[in-house]
Amino acid sequence: MDSSHPKAVLVFSGKRKSGKDFTCALLKERLGDVCTILTLSAPLKCQFAEIHGLDYEQLLSASSYKERYRHDMVVWGEKKRNEDPSIFCRLATLDVSTQHKVWLISDARRKTDVAYFKETYSDRAKLVRVQADESIRASRGYVFKKGVDDSETECGLDEGVLWDYVITNNGDEDDLDRQLTQLISSIQDGLINEIKTDVS
Ligand SMILES: Nc1ncnc2c1ncn2[C@@H]1O[C@H](COP(=O)(O)OP(=O)(O)O)[C@@H](O)[C@H]1O
Ligand SMILES: C[C@@](O)(CCOP(=O)(O)OP(=O)(O)O)CC(=O)O
Fold first, then answer.
1. Is the bond preceding residue 43 a cis peptide, omega within 30 degrees?
2. Which residue puts its alpha carbon closest to atom 11 of ligand 2?
3. What is the distance in A from the centroid of ligand 2 to the CA of 115?
4. Which class is domain 8-192?
5. Whose CA is closest to atom 2 on ligand 1?
6. How high is the pLDDT of residue 193?
7. Where are the alpha helices (DSSP H) in 9-168?
8. Which of the 8 DSSP states describes residue 126?
9. What is the pLDDT of residues 114-136, one digit of tens each?
10. What is the pLDDT of residues 87-124, one digit of tens each?
11. 137 confidence band (pLDDT: 50, 70, 90)
12. Which ligand 1 atom is nearest residue 14's CA?
């Protein structure tokens, strides 16, 4: 593995409907092709869909179809992680083009996810928590589900993590834009000067 690649790995975590995907898409828009979005859930959903004859594309979407199978995917995923804690981290980051110097991992959920990226990429890995008030999440379609929202998949990173950045995403677009601008400039200053060339 090329130890100099990637230059930065932003590991995002947040509750359902907090805006992880939304925030990563905005960052990708701002950073361009130097950046790529990777999800730990994609390889899990791919395998789960194959085993159960389900529609992978629908599992990837923000749909009721995904929600219908979420709990079963969580249980199956945890069984696989118990056998090999970093399996989905490795699968999600396989063969990423060296063109993409900045990786946005949009959906870390467990201490083992965080540990993998910190151990593998050291200080190139930065932990980002996206947070939104529960009322805002509800307005985006969040409904509490027992066995999901009170279990590790949604609570595994609620405590004991020192976040490098916390993004508050309650719908104030100017505030979000300001936070993302700060995040991008601190990454550029701190970790990856090359991005200044790539995005200028
Ligand atoms: N700041 C925002 N402004 C407008 N819509 C938003 C904002 N943040 C999230 N959303 C919308 O809310 C829904 C949930 O956001 P998403 O990023 O999918 O959450 P998560 O990935 O954390 O579950 C999506 O439809 C998304 O487009
Ligand atoms: C089984 C899962 O991978 C399903 C995650 O699906 P998404 O990542 O699509 O969830 P959102 O937070 O709503 O964007 C969770 C897990 O515990 O691995």
1. no
2. 16
3. 18
4. alpha beta
5. 171
6. 56
7. 20-31, 41-52, 56-60, 64-83, 87-92, 111-121, 134-139, 152-155
8. E
9. 999 999 999 899 999 999 999 99
10. 999 999 999 998 999 999 999 999 999 999 999 999 89
11. very high
12. 22
Our answer on whether the CB atom of 44 is closer than 6 Å to any ligand 2 atom is yes
d(CA 196, CA 58): 37
Contact by Cβ (8 Å): 165, 183: yes
Give the ligand with the smallest distance to the CA of 41: 2
20 CB near ligand 1 (under 6 Å) = yes
Report the pLDDT averaged over residues 170-190. Answer: 92
Candidates 114, 124, 108; CA nearest to 161 is: 114
Q: Which atom of ligand 1 is nearest to the CA of 18?
A: 22
> Residue 128 pairs with which residues in a beta bridge?
12, 165
- The tokens for 112 are 């083992």
Ligand found nearest the CA of 21: 1
